[in-house]
Specification:
With about 260 residues, the protein is an alpha/beta fold. It is built from 9 helices and 11 strands. The strands form 2 sheets. Strands 1, 2, 6, 7, 8, 9, 10 and 11 form an 8-stranded mixed β-sheet that branches. A 3-stranded antiparallel β-sheet has the order 3-5-4. It is globular, with a radius of gyration of 18 Å. The structure holds ligand 48H.
Length: about 260
């Protein structure tokens, strides 16, 4: 083996990371949250040729999918969602009519791997703590290291610009909450506010989710669990077809709007 220089390893990492970060100060779509819906949205946007980055607070990408249902590392997907599993080449096993089981580890890691290979840029360990609003439109997101957030350090964030932002932060709907609090206008929901998620009801939740995928404020879209929570629909438990389908659907909606 040739002699290795530790400082060259450092230089390689620092330069490559800084190049990426500088490159993604301007992009087409910024996604907040690396759960299944955000990663799936990123995959379809990247595959369609858009410049898209996903910002995830945690070290790992995958959100609530790794743990399956109550730490049993299986998830269930219904017939409609199986189409997306097949697109990603993720194995599924029929359980009974309309119910497929999937290994949550294979599913999460494959979504991540295929999305990054399609061109989705992922920045982990970063939290979206604010948005940029210009002329009543969301024009980007404001980022800080999640370690800064966790340590409660008083350090100012940095801003990146995007034509569209997706709130894929799951149950807490963090980006929608920021916009609800800071903008002067109502959100595009039946009350003009975040309605909040309802109790578990898989059938209703899964059947409502695509209707809930929407532009809730100019430039801000919701997908995944955040879409149901913002619009007041139920949670669905460990069935994940809606997460995958809503990720695909929000990408389609954004592409249609950006092409206008
Ligand atoms: C950066 C952030 C921020 C922030 C949060 O919860 P997720 O897995 O989201 P979905 O919608 O793709 O999937 C939901 C699913 O996992 C789930 O919880 C289901 C189906 N529940 C049903 C039920 O009944 O309980 O992922 C969201 C991700 C997480 O990784 C967060 O760390 C991250 O978003 N996140 N990242 N900046 N401000 N807020």
């Amino acid at each position: 083996m040739k002699e290795l220089n530790d400082v060259i390893v450092s230089k390689a990492i620092i330069k490559e990371y800084m190049d990426d970060l500088l490159d993604y100060t301007e992009m087409d779509v910024a996604i907040g949250g690396g759960g299944p819906s955000g990663v799936t949205a990123g995959y379809y946007l990247a595959k369609a040729g858009y410049k898209v980055a996903l910002f995830e607070r945690k070290l790992s990408i995958g959100g609530g999918m790794w743990g399956g249902g109550m730490m049993f590392n299986k998830v269930v997907v219904q017939e409609e969602g199986k189409r997306i599993l097949d697109e990603f080449n993720i194995k599924s096993k029929p359980f009974q009519d309309n119910y497929y089981t999937v290994d949550s580890i294979e599913c999460t890691s494959t979504l991540c791997s295929k999305a990054t290979q399609a061109g989705l840029k992922i920045f982990n360990l970063m939290s979206i703590e604010d948005v940029m609003i210009r002329k009543d439109k969301i024009n980007g997101v404001v980022l800080n290291w999640s370690s800064v957030e966790m340590a409660g350090l008083h350090i100012d964030p940095l801003t990146v610009e995007s034509k569209a932002v997706i709130d894929a932060t799951g149950h807490p709907t963090e980006i929608a909450k920021i916009v609800e609090k800071k903008s002067q206008k109502n959100l595009n929901t039946t009350t003009g506010k975040i309605i909040g998620e309802g109790s578990m009801w898989a059938d209703r939740a899964e059947n409502k989710i695509l209707e809930n995928v929407s532009e809730i404020y100019p430039g801000l879209y919701v997908t995944g669990m955040a879409a149901n929570a913002v619009h007041g629909s139920p949670r669905m438990g460990p069935i994940f077809g809606g997460m995958l389908l809503s990720g695909e659907y929000v990408a389609k909606k954004i592409i249609q709007n950006l092409e206008k």
